[in-house]
Specification:
This protein has about 150 residues and is mainly β. The chain has helices spanning about 115-120, 125-135; strands at about 20, 25-30, 35-40, 45-50, 55-65, 65-70, 75-80, 85, 90-95, 100-110, 140. The strands form two sheets. It has a six-stranded antiparallel sheet with strand order 1-2-3-10-5-8, with helices on one face. Strands 7-6-9-4-11 form a five-stranded antiparallel sheet, covered by helices on one side.
């Protein structure tokens, strides 16, 4: 699918799609074979556990709030305006440990099947089921630390 020319307006999403994934709100804003971008809202205390994408680079442009990151075993913090770069295959986790919402633009390249994964994760409450479904789309969660 080629990229569609145009503008996705602030606050809008493609086809008015909104997903609730692990307590966060995701809105797709761009989709093509080459890349997939989505706006996110992470309320305080929400997170994406450590995982990796073997065949996608991932990026985060922080817009509001702070993210605590686990990148290949290193603890880092990203603040508004920062760009987080996670090469394909790198292990990473994303946490909002603050007291305010964190907002960001995420994108992956190439898109692969991440959009389809999010369709299937929408409102799934059981973490074990999230892990099982994600593996079918080549996103792999790491076991919890001992």
């Amino acid at each position: 699918m080629p990229i569609q020319q145009g503008i996705t307006r602030s606050g809008d999403s493609l086809d008015n799609v909104v997903w609730d994934i692990l307590g966060q709100t995701y809105k797709p804003v761009q989709l093509s074979e080459a890349s997939f971008a989505f706006d996110t809202l992470f309320p305080p205390g929400t997170f994406v556990p450590p995982h990796f994408h073997p065949d996608q680079d991932e990026f985060i442009r922080v817009l509001q709030g702070d993210f605590d990151l686990w990148l290949e075993g290193e603890e880092l913090k990203a603040s508004p305006g920062d760009l987080v770069r996670m090469p394909m295959g790198s292990k990473h986790g994303i946490f909002n440990r603050g007291t305010t919402d964190a907002r960001a633009l995420f994108w992956v390249a190439p898109a692969r099947r991440l959009y389809d994964l999010f369709v299937n994760l929408d409102r799934v409450a059981d973490p074990a089921e999230v892990v099982r479904i994600a593996a079918q789309y080549n996103v792999h969660f790491l076991p919890p630390p001992a």
